Amino acid sequence: QEEPRGDITFPPSQGADYKAILVLMLSGGCDSFNMLVPHTCSAKDMYAEYFKVREQVALSKSSLLMIDSNNQICEKFGVHQNLPIIQELYNDGDLLFLANTGSLTKPANKDNYYHVTKQQLFAHNHMQRDAQSVDPFEKIVGTGVVGRIADRLEEKGQKVGAFSIDRSSISLIGETAVGKDQFILSQNGINEFNSQPSSPTMQETIQELNEATTPDSGFFAETWSESLLRSLAHNKMLYNILTDATTSVTFPKTNLGNQLKVVAQVIGSRLERSVDADVFYVEMGGFDTHSNVEQVLQNRFQEMNGAIEAFTSEIKQLNLWDSVTTVQISDFARTLNPNSGDGTDHAWGGNYFMFGGSVKGGKIYGTYPDNLTDDGPKTLERGRLIPDTPWDAPFESLARWAGIDTNDELDKVCPNRHNFPESVRFNNNSLFKSAQRRATSSTRGHLRK
Predict the structure, then answer these.
(1) How many helices, marked H, and strands, marked E, lie in the chain?
(2) Distance between alpha carbon 67 and the CA centroid of its chain, in Å?
(3) By C-alpha distance, which of 137, 155, 139, 146 is closest to 173?
(4) Strands (E), 107-190
(5) What residue ranges in 270-367 does DSSP mark as E strands?
(6) Do 327 and 21 contact (CB within 8 A), yes or no?
(7) Lowest-confidence region among 175-184, 278-287, 410-419
(8) Is residue 290 domain-resident?
(9) What residues are paired with 350 via a beta bridge?
């Protein structure tokens, strides 16, 4: 005789210092060599080379927002004029750039890249997946790099939430036997399950149809029923918590603004949800600029700037600036050389950013190319650049920041990391500040209006 199941309960947090990782995907392939541009370079006039190679899609030098650099070919670089929040966070020491980064199997050059690269290059679906999974040999098949970070935290006894806005993402998928499923939330908020049921006893009927199974009921029946009822319980909990959730900051009513508002609201509910950590995925499309790249980037970057500005302010209002790290990714960068439609085409290595109060910002990590012509050692035809830095590097550092520190754990997060020397992987945790420096940065960030 089957019996009613007990109420679904959620375990309390383990009391760990809260941390959240947010993945921001610019889908379509962002032309990031017009996001981070050479400006002042004493060793070589890199801006003149950039201007010549990029032809009609080059940005004027006077339009760029200048930032200082370190150990790069240029002393100063320029950020796209519609990204002042990126310049501000960089100058505050809370944002870093990752130069010429992308999907790699092992270090590659013009002579061997075709033979040593497993990834299917230049294709949206393959390279979006690669940037989110960071597992070219599929050693932990069907999982994403942030999902594997969450798995390792769960194994330590932490309670971790996983939320993707508007869509499912492989980035957050963990191992079935370890982690939890991601919750997909609408940018318009969470909907109550069956708010207008066709039967007044709908909830009771669901409970009766999914009562506790007996030993001969079958594994699949038990898995289905347990998953269904746990999902409904999560829906009820999140609906009750988030329906009346507010933010201190007014977010722009744009696609990305709405998504980041939901992320901020979920972060703000961490105590009610009793979690130790959260992982998030948001996506902004429209970067497949085969034509009119200049106007498209102006519009896309303007929207991104407003959304990040509001999100940054809200996280600081929550006093969680040191606890939240955002990493921006994309399928790939674009060809440096434009096409006949004033656009750019699919390429490979690109420039990305990471920000948060714990990030050791104000620096450009990796290697910005010192030759943008097709004669350059890393340049394929039409300015397709072979990456110097693999995605393994920033995500290994993120995992360490989250509290994953043993080699066995890190191998499960980034199973391909040993194909690259430590120097390429930023010597372990060099992307993040020490505790003392975080405290100083946190005070400055919280006081600034």
Answers:
(1) 13, 14
(2) 23
(3) 146
(4) 160-165, 183-185
(5) 277-284, 324-330, 350-355, 364-366
(6) yes
(7) 175-184
(8) yes
(9) 101
Q: Which of 326, 50, 53 is nearest to 64 (CA)?
A: 50
3-state secondary structure 224-254: HHHHHHHHHHHHHHHHHHHCCCCCCCCCCCC
The position carrying tokens 């980034």 is: 414
Structure tokens that stand for 26 in this block: 């610019």
Task: Please determine, for residue 443, whether its predicted confidence score (pLDDT) is greater than 60.
Answer: no
Q: Residues 38, 52: contact at Cβ < 8 Å?
A: no
Q: Is residue 217 part of a domain?
A: no
Rounded CA separation 344/337 (Å): 7
Residue 185, C-beta contacts closer than 8 angstroms, at least 6 positions apart = 163, 164, 165, 166, 238, 262, 266
Q: How far is CA 137 from the centre of its chain?
A: 21
Query: What does the alpha-carbon distance between residue 286 and residue 301 come to, in Å, rounded to a whole number?
Result: 11
Taking only the tens place, the pLDDT of each residue in 362-393 is 999 999 999 999 999 999 999 999 999 999 99
- Alpha carbons 385 and 81: distance in angstroms, whole number: 24
- What are φ and ψ of residue 353, in 5° steps? -135, 160
Q: How many residues does the chain have?
A: 449
Residue 370, Cβ density class (10 Å: 0-12 exposed, 13-18 middle, ≥19 buried): middle
pLDDT given at position 137: 95
Confirm if 104 and 387 have CB atoms less than 8 A apart.
yes
Output the domain CATH number for residue 29: 3.40.720.10
Instruction: Give pLDDT, residue 1.
Output: 45
Q: How many domains does the chain have?
A: 1
- Tens of pLDDT along 5-43? 766 666 677 777 999 999 999 999 999 999 999 999 999
Only one residue has tokens 């997060």, namely 413
Q: Are 115 and 104 in contact (CB under 8 A)?
A: no
pTM over 0.90: yes
First vs last C-alpha separation in the chain:
63
Domain assignment present for 4: no
Does residue 213 form part of some domain?
A: no
Q: Which residue has the tokens 């050479």?
A: 38
- Give the distance from CA 221 to its chain's centroid: 36
Per DSSP (E only), the strands in 42-159 are: 65-68, 76-79, 95-102
Range of the domain at 412: 19-190+244-447
* Distance in angstroms (rounded) separating the CA atoms of residues 208 and 382: 63
Helix axes 202-209, 219-242, angle to 10 degrees: 150
- How far apart, in Å, are the Cα atoms of 4 and each of 214, 235, 306, 403? 12, 20, 50, 39
Pairing mode of beta strands 76-79, 36-40: antiparallel
Q: Which residues does 195 contact at the CB level (< 8 Å), separation at least 6?
A: none
